[in-house]
Specification:
This protein has two helices and four strands. The chain is α+β, with helices and mostly antiparallel strands. It has a single domain (about 5-70), classed as Alpha-Beta Plaits, CATH 3.30.70.20.
Length: about 70
């Protein structure tokens, strides 16, 4: 099964939660902190660091291009 690593660009995120809702592995959650615009941005959930399957749904649904994944060997 493929594995991926999630990268979030907090300053681009507007807190729409699309990536969180569409992740089939529940890898993402909302941050406790806020970015400079006042939005809670997406972060990898505690204990889910190795759960990403690199499906790239998060990247496809993000209207702000604030998240992407890379395949991990």
């Amino acid at each position: 099964m493929p594995r991926g690593q999630v990268f979030v660009i907090p300053e681009r995120c507007k807190g729409c939660r699309f990536c969180i809702e569409f992740c089939p592995e529940d890898v993402l959650t909302e941050s406790e902190g806020m970015n400079a615009k006042g939005y809670h941005y997406a972060v990898v959930a505690e204990g889910k660091e190795d759960a990403c399957v690199d499906c790239r749904f998060c990247r496809l649904v993000c209207p702000e291009f604030a998240i992407y994944t890379e395949e991990v060997q």
